[in-house]
Amino acid sequence: MSNKKVPLFHLAFPVADLEETLHFYKNILGCTTGRSSDHWIDFNFWGHQVVAHLSPDEAGRSSTNEVDGHKVPAKHFGLILEWEQWQELAERLQEKGIDFIIDPYIRFEGEAGEQATMFFKDPSGNALEFKAFRNEEQIFAT
């Protein structure tokens, strides 16, 4: 294995309201902010740069696909956390009254790729998924 640093990702996504977005990503998810303007905000998303761009006509549009008996938004983003981080985030979101698209649960239990997952939307309707694997070596298990 290489000693090279894992690249960070950058994601830009549309939002309907910058103030609601700022509140959600900063106060609910715990992200810090970077640069911003009247049309966009940079967020430190667990060390990655995600940028909310004001674009009300594009925000929150997504179809769904069936996965493990749930309708998963086809367009979503999120993170793979460590198991304990995922549990802490799930508890914090539940305490804050987040309305989940898919409640926190264990997917593919007892199978290759077993994972904890949860889906919810930001105020603009953008879907987020946070997951964790008991065994990170199974992230790409078939």
Give an account of the 3D structure.
Helix content is 17%, strand content 42%. With 142 residues, the chain is α+β, with helices and mostly antiparallel strands. It has one domain (10-138): Roll (2,3-Dihydroxybiphenyl 1,2-Dioxygenase, domain 1). The strands form three sheets. Strands 1-4-3-2 form a four-stranded mixed β-sheet, covered by helices on one side. The chain has a four-stranded mixed β-sheet with strand order 7-10-9-8. It has a two-stranded antiparallel sheet with strand order 5-6. β2 (32-36) and β3 (40-45) form a beta hairpin. The chain is globular, with a radius of gyration of 16 Å. The model has no long low-confidence stretch (mean pLDDT 92).
Briefly say what this structure is.
With 142 residues, this protein is an alpha+beta fold. The chain has two helices and ten strands.
Question: Largest sheet, order of strands side by side?
Answer: 1-4-3-2
Q: Within the CATH hierarchy, at the fold level, what is the topology?
A: 2,3-Dihydroxybiphenyl 1,2-Dioxygenase, domain 1
Largest sheet: 4 strands, mixed
SSE-based structural type: alpha+beta
Level-1 CATH class name:
Alpha Beta
User: What is the helix content?
Assistant: 10-25%
Order of helices and strands: EHEEEEEEHEEE
- What is the CATH architecture term? Roll
On the 0 to 100 scale, the average pLDDT is: 92
Shape: globular
Give start-end ranges of low-pLDDT stretches: none
What is the number of beta strands?
A: 10
Give the termini separation: 22 Å
How many domains make up the 3D coordinates? 1
CATH homology group: 2,3-Dihydroxybiphenyl 1,2-Dioxygenase, domain 1
Q: Report the sheet-strand fraction.
A: 35-45%
**Separate helix tally:** 2
How large is the radius of gyration? 16 Å
